[in-house]
């Protein structure tokens, strides 16, 4: 659409300053302005195969990892033939801490998208925290990132524990929302591979915390050992 959308997680320093500018715009006709220096892209994206040619594509994002995955998802929806069912060929799974973290992307989520919100209602968070630590479901990288974000928001006078109730109404009806839940990668991967018989090749891309990438890789490995062919691309971040 010939537009560039910049998505920033407001922490400290530069991102906090940009958030303050966006939250307190100057009176029109002189909107706030700031100078941006942009370089890139980096990585292997320019050498990707023709992803739209794969019979099944699984795209997985964790938190801000959607800033990498979502443009690929949108491009695939545009490239899939009109005669094909894009919702069945391209599966997009996004795990976020709170529904508010996904608000910016609501207009771009296509049919069949799945959003998992891991944060539990406030009254249940304390009871659940010990169980998460015991079963290993708590992602240290993601939690550390959220802690820094919450500190920055509190310093700016924001609310760290926003209620997601209002955001739920903004989710498109064709998007599946999973509350207080994390993706079941065993089930998700099984559904993707089972939908196409061998020797069909599956493309899988993931961008998120290291723990998420490792969990997805384990489940994909089960099918690779069964002889299935996979094109894999993973990008991980940590704090």
What does this protein structure show overall?
- The longest helix is centred in the middle third of the chain and has 16 residues.
- The chain contains eight helices and six strands; from the N terminus they run H-E-H-H-E-E-H-H-H-E-H-E-H-E.
- Helix 7 crosses helix 8.
- The protein is of the alpha/beta class.
- The two termini are 33 Å apart.
- Strands 4-3-2-1-5-6 form a six-stranded parallel beta sheet, with helices on both faces.
Give the N-to-C terminal Cα separation.
33 Å
Number of continuous helical runs: 8
Whole-number radius of gyration?
A: 19 Å
Q: What is the approximate shape?
A: globular
The number of distinct β-strands equals 6
Order of helices and strands: HEHHEEHHHEHEHE
What structural class is derived from the secondary structure elements? Answer: alpha/beta
| Mean of all residue-level pLDDT scores | 78
Helix content: 25-40%
Low-confidence blocks of residues = 131-138, 143-163
Strand order of the largest sheet: 4-3-2-1-5-6
Kindly estimate the percentage of residues that lie in beta strands according to DSSP.
15-25%
Largest sheet: 6 strands, parallel
